[in-house]
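May I ask for an example protein's residues together with how it folds?

___
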Amino acid sequence: MTSTVRKRPPAPSPEAKAKSIAARRASARLAPAAAHELTGEITGRATGAAAPTTPRLCHVHNSGGASILLDERDPLVDTTSTAPGGDLPVLLELTDLAPVGLRERTRGLLWITGWLRLLPTQTDRQLALDIAEERPAAELLDIGHGVRLLCLHPSSLVLADSDGTQPLLPRQFAEAEPDPFCEYEHYWLRHLEGEHADVVDALARHVPAELRHGTIRPLSLDQFGLRLRVETDSGDHDVRLAFRQPAVTPKQLGVEMRRLVGCPFLAA
């Protein structure tokens, strides 16, 4: 008697998923961490510390560190300026949301723990220019006019999604590349949801038969495949549809998508 082991479909590595969440400029929340050694564990806020805040802008650098814009009246600015040595232990939370209106839109969380420091006014403007080259943003013009720029030096990172929780070192994050389609994914999924219900219906043939009675929605797209969310009365179920070959270019992505749909006129 032989047993069959089902192989999991190919998917991005945890490092690549974390890098993609950062590149997509996910929704950010910043809070003081517990006042002990930062180990990457999520341990809550330090007693008596400032409440969590939503930065006006959060830019994650390739190293895993981040440049953060806060209103100068934000309690975290004062807490950081009076912290021992000028370094405040903090937790930055990035929330990866699906671009379509699902019942549960959160696809993943990226936590970055590290040390927050206020930048001197002589330094923040130059850094703002460097950030603007990567991410033009009107908020950068407010630096020095009621807004302060702070720098987060990373200690560790943690990725949490439907595949589990994965701790990462800043070195692992820095060496990873984001998915080649991560910055365009939200446009394509919204277009698929809004303009091509027939394509979603065709993709439904890959969904297990017992789930096809549910509402099938596009959830995520990466170079290895497409994920669908099936919303049923009993809960939500995610189904990954793997490409035959990883896609790197939009042309390759188009070929793999047509293959999943079952198009009989695939170009050579």
